[in-house]
Amino acid sequence: MLGGGGHNGAYEVGMLRALFEHGIKPNVVVGTSVGAMNGAAVAASPTLETVERLRNVWLTLNEDQIFGGSILAGAANLVRTRTSLHSNRALRAMIEQLLPVTTFEELQVPFQCVAASIERAAEHWFHEGPLVDAILATAAVPGVLPPVEIGGEHFVDGGIVNSIPISRAVELGAKEIYVLQVGRVEAPLAPPKTPVQVALVAFEIARRHRFARDLATLPKGVVAHVLPSGEPQRPSLRQLNYRDFRAVAGRIARAYRAAGEYLSTLPVPKS
Question: What is the pTM of this model?
Fold first, then answer.
């Protein structure tokens, strides 16, 4: 289960490497936003080689590859579209290059990702048909990337409705769930002291409350392992800089170490 979190999705790459090195491979993958991109790559080919390829992609990412231009270009796009700072063309090209398949049906492991339907004001789970469009839909951060139209319906970022979709894994029959999150659930919250902190804390509460409830109400016989990122911290202004990919290498390395240490304390999985 891979949660959303923009450039913090690099943590998930380190966690994936630790999982595979401990002999843990998925029977089903679910993801939100950037977690859907990472998850689809693994579902296409669940191997350490894929994780290494993901790592190389993340290490070479820059703002042009995802957002296709400068801040000025983004402002121009906002003027033109009135709804988003960036086109999703650059992100589409990157995902198409990353994934070896184009449809859900071609994946080696069953995979689902969630987006928020504008018309129905509800979560929608994609599990069949074109893969790239579904990933673009779940990653369509409001105001940053445009809504994605699929079948006459418009979708935006899945993090709005189910940022860490542990509940979907349960619905699909999972008995042992490995939760790959981007570090925010580990960071303590405190009363805000500035207008920007008000927004950040409000978002974090909205983001976490469903996950906390789902985790606390797991059905009997279901176990969830929340992998550590290795870097708990308070929400900060750096989270607002969605274009900054400079810390990717460190995030991958810290999550790999922390997740590996955690997994070493668990019983050896049955073959």
Answer: 0.88
d(CA 12, CA 271): 24
Residue 109: strand, helix, or coil: coil
Rounded Cα distance between 37 and 146, Å, is 17
Show the CA angle centred on residue 210, arms to residues 207 and 211, nearest 5°: 85
If DSSP codes are grouped into helix, strand and coil, which group holds residue 242? coil
CA-CA-CA-CA torsion sign (236, 91, 77, 161): negative
What would the two tokens of residue 162 be?
Answer: 């189910």
Q: Which two tokens stand for residue 28?
A: 């089903």
Question: What is the per-residue burial (b if ≥16 Cβ within 10 Å, else e) of 227-260?
Answer: bbbbbeeebeeebeebbebeebeebbbbbbebbb
CA nearest neighbour of 245 among 17, 120, 65: 65
Please say whether the beta carbons of 56 and 252 come within 8 A. no
Please tell me whether residue 172 adopts helix, strand or coil conformation. Answer: coil
Q: What is the mean pLDDT of each run of 10 residues along the chain (271 residues)?
A: 90 98 97 96 97 93 59 44 74 93 98 98 97 97 92 95 94 97 80 80 81 94 96 54 72 96 85 51
